[in-house]
Automatic annotation (TrEMBL):
Gene: minC
Keyword Aminoacyl-tRNA synthetase recorded: no
Protein name, per record: Probable septum site-determining protein MinC
Residues covered by the Septum site-determining protein MinC N-terminal domain: 8-84
HAMAP family: MinC
Cited SUPFAM superfamilies: Cell-division inhibitor MinC, C-terminal domain
InterPro entries: CAP/MinC_C (IPR016098), MinC (IPR013033), MinC_C_sf (IPR036145), MinC_N_1 (IPR055219), Septum_form_inhib_MinC_C (IPR005526)
Subunit annotation: Interacts with MinD and FtsZ.
Length: 228
């Protein structure tokens, strides 16, 4: 049995407070312990707002339970919950994550007026002709010529990329960034990739070897291809 002193651990950080909640006891016990500890730690209401991060461990909370935690903390006028983090997710969330990280192969030529959209990463084996459009919530990999419009990270993923065997697009979009005329030569660029430059904040076109150096996490694409 877990002792009350171990149910809630409060640690101060540079960014505020972190609450570690024991994941081996009842939710009611957690709430009671949290109310007691917050009431014991007297805070001056004139102090600036303090951000609170809640770590649940291997505990899952419903939206109603999360709101109950927020309410307990809101009673302290200078505390505000910034995030509630858990190591577990629901089956529905797991399925959504799987869809967002899957690679969808498309084998065709995207002609003028045609639009192809996928969830997760797109692997296009074919060309995107002028006037054609490809969109994905993740990355877009084109084994062919990119001459139309590509929009990667359409739900706001600014780490998404567009890679192509030959790059001369009408337009590139990544998340909410738009590039009408990327920095490539008039003849286009072979084996290149478009991405948002963290330093400049706009879309850059660079050789693939530079992109893999800047984005080592793209190695997961290779692992998924080998294991898929």
């Amino acid at each position: 049995m877990v002792s009350n002193s171990q149910l809630v651990t409060i640690k101060g950080t540079r960014d505020g407070l972190t609450l570690h909640l024991n994941d081996q006891c009842s939710f009611k016990s957690i709430v009671n312990e949290l109310e007691q500890k917050l009431s014991m730690n007297g805070l001056d209401h004139d102090e600036p707002m303090i951000r609170v991060t809640i770590q649940l461990g291997k505990r899952y909370l419903s939206n109603q339970q999360q709101e109950a935690l927020r309410e307990v903390i809101r009673e302290r006028q200078n505390l505000v919950v910034e995030s509630i983090d858990s190591e577990v997710i629901t089956k529905e969330e797991a399925l959504a994550w799987k869809e967002d990280t899957e690679i969808t192969p498309v084998v065709r030529t995207i002609r003028s007026g045609q639009v192809v959209e996928t969830r997760g990463d797109m692997l296009l084996i074919g060309d995107v002709n002028p006037g054609g459009e490809v969109l994905a919530t993740g990355n877009i990999f084109i084994m062919g010529s990119m001459r139309g419009m590509a929009h990667a990270g359409i739900h706001g993923d600014n780490k998404a990329i567009v890679a192509a065997s030959y790059m001369k697009p009408n337009q590139l979009r990544i998340a909410d960034q738009l590039s009408q005329a990327p920095n490539y030569e008039s003849e286009g660029v072979y084996m290149s990739c478009g991405f948002i430059d963290a330093g400049e904040g706009d879309i850059r076109i660079a050789p693939l070897h530079e992109v893999t150096r800047r984005r080592p996490d793209l190695a997961s694409f290779e692992r998924r291809m080998l294991n898929g």
